[in-house]
Write a structure and sequence with these properties.
This protein is α/β, with parallel strands linked by helices. The chain has helices at 3-13, 47-55, 80-90, 100-103, 109-116, 144-153, 208-218, 252-262, 292-297, 327-331, 334-343, and strands spanning 26-29, 38-42, 60-63, 94-97, 120-128, 132-140, 167-175, 192-204, 226-230, 235-250, 269-270, 278-287, 302-306, 321-324, 350-353. It has 3 domains: 3-101 and 333-353, 3-Layer(aba) Sandwich (Udp-n-acetylmuramoylalanyl-d-glutamate--2,6- Diaminopimelate Ligase, Chain: A, domain 1), CATH 3.40.1390.30; 109-127 and 239-330, 3-Layer(aba) Sandwich (Udp-n-acetylmuramoylalanyl-d-glutamate--2,6- Diaminopimelate Ligase, Chain: A, domain 1); 132-233, Alpha-Beta Plaits (2-Layer Sandwich), CATH 3.30.70.120. The protein contains 11 helices and 15 strands. It has a 6-stranded mixed sheet. It has a 5-stranded mixed sheet with strand order 1-4-3-2-15, with helices on both faces. Strand 2, helix 2 and strand 3 form a beta-alpha-beta unit. Helix 6 packs antiparallel against helix 7 (208-218). The radius of gyration is 25 Å and the shape is globular.
């Protein structure tokens, strides 16, 4: 199996279009046409991670965090990033990073946190806008089923927990071909009226090229009439963070103790614990201070995230508890999520969970 084939499988799960604009995701080091001997799945790629890949005969590292985040102007080994990249290159090891593409996936990082906490009735905390488009096309009634099915197969018509969604209106289309035309129905130079179906169907914008290819291949007309509109609807299956509910009420201190045990945290920093019990829980893996107001607006009793600064705790304003469980701790199970997904798809080479602990933070 080639690296690019593995990448295709990964990106079926978490397309790179899901990633935030600031991020650096995808194949960072290596040749996509190389054959994979083994793949090491890790949270971070460091020199020690590359050493583990070498020892375990893996020439592909699938990492959550990107080792290259901003541009590299030199490769002299002066810092840990350059040393890691140099070691990977010298040993023909490719590095692929997924980061916020998986953060924004509905069944990604935050769903894993919610699962560990036993949350039910889960929803995206900050659904993404500008990610849904609508296609309208016009096709002879006799060909409508074929075109519609082709669009469904390409990924169009998925709305939340439903698929094969479309809206169809029957009417009359008219056209007159010029002398260079080759009409499928009617004759050139003569106005023709055809019983047509208007098919309206939504799709995720990263699928657009695939959707249009399916349309053109399945549509009978020489010239395909279609319209594309960008929708302002928020995508309830894509976005940052997650909010859900505990099945039973728990007091704040007891819940934080449960969180500490679930994530093996050496300490949780938090705002004042309120008297009201915890029911609604918002989570966001990694640095999530930007979402405190979203958690408030959603009615969360507690917001669990990482990398909070001093003044972030004031933002709780006794309306909820904000808790910092640690960056590594909040994302540590990401590699397990990737391993679980890929192991169901790949059997031609070894998939290995990294043993290297890449947490840079230590406690007395």
């Amino acid at each position: 199996m080639l690296i690019k084939e593995v990448i295709t499988i990964i990106e079926e799960f978490a397309p790179l279009d899901y990633a935030e604009d600031f991020d650096n995701v995808g194949l960072l080091v290596g040749n996509a046409s190389e054959e994979v001997k083994g793949a090491l799945i890790t949270l971070d790629t460091l020199e020690s991670t590359v050493d583990e890949a070498i020892a375990k005969n893996c020439n592909l590292i699938i990492s959550f965090h990107p080792i290259i985040f901003s541009g590299l102007k030199k490769l002299t080994g002066k810092n840990y990033v350059e040393r890691t990249v140099l070691k990977a290159i010298k040993n023909d090891i490719a590095i692929y990073a997924i980061h916020t593409a998986l953060d924004n996936q509905h069944k990604g990082v935050n769903d894993m946190i919610a699962e560990k906490l036993g949350l039910v009735n889960r929803q995206i905390l900050i659904p993404r806008s500008d990610s849904i488009k609508k296609l309208q096309t016009y096709v002879p009634v006799s060909n409508a089923a074929k075109v519609r099915e082709a669009l469904f197969q390409a990924g169009a018509g998925n709305i939340g927990n439903y698929d094969n969604c479309s809206f169809n209106v029957q009417g009359f289309g008219s056209f007159k071909g010029n002398e260079d035309s080759n009409p499928v129905v009617g004759e050139k130079g003569t106005i023709h009226f055809e019983d047509e179906m208007q098919i309206g169907i939504t799709y995720k914008k990263h699928l657009e090229s695939k959707i249009l290819k399916a349309l053109f291949q399945s549509h009978p007309y020489e010239e395909v009439a279609y319209e594309i509109h960008s929708l302002e609807n928020r995508n309830q299956q894509l976005g940052m963070g997650m909010i859900g509910e505990l099945e039973t009420l728990v007091d704040g201190k007891s819940f934080l103790t449960q969180v500490q045990e679930a994530f093996n945290s050496n300490g949780i920093r938090h705002s004042e614990i309120l008297k009201s019990p915890i029911k609604k829980v918002a989570v966001l893996g990694g640095s999530g201070a930007f979402a405190i107001e979203n958690a408030k607006s959603a009615g969360a009793d507690i917001f669990i995230t990482a990398d909070l600064k001093y003044h972030d705790y004031y933002k709780a304003e006794q309306k909820l508890v904000v808790a910092d469980i640690g960056h590594y701790e909040s994302e540590q199970f990401t590699k397990n999520l990737l391993y679980s997904f890929l192991s169901k798809k790949i059997s031609s080479f070894a998939l290995i969970l990294a043993d290297t602990n890449t947490n840079p933070i230590h406690y007395l």
